[in-house]
Write a structure and sequence with these properties.
The chain has 64 residues and is of the alpha+beta class. The chain is built from two helices and three strands; from the N terminus they run H-E-E-E-H. Strands 1-2-3 form a three-stranded antiparallel sheet, with helices on one face. The termini are far apart.
Length: 64
């Protein structure tokens, strides 16, 4: 069962990303190290595979 968008958002916030807002169902997150990511979808929607992979990659980059 795929994870929800809200779970990806929690992972990003836990890793130090800040929600910079967005339009519609898009949310822009920014890390103080200069890493940005945009997540689309409502919090209750299932996350797509590419979204989960991108979140994992960005969190790893933020820890370097």
């Amino acid at each position: 069962m795929p994870r929800k968008i809200r779970q990806l958002i929690k992972d990003l916030e836990k890793a130090g990303f800040l929600n910079r807002g967005g339009k519609g169902s898009h949310r822009n997150f920014f890390h103080p190290k200069g890493i940005a990511i945009t997540i689309s979808g409502k919090p209750g929607d299932d996350a797509k595979n590419y979204q989960e992979k991108e979140v994992q990659i960005k969190i790893k980059r933020s820890k370097k």
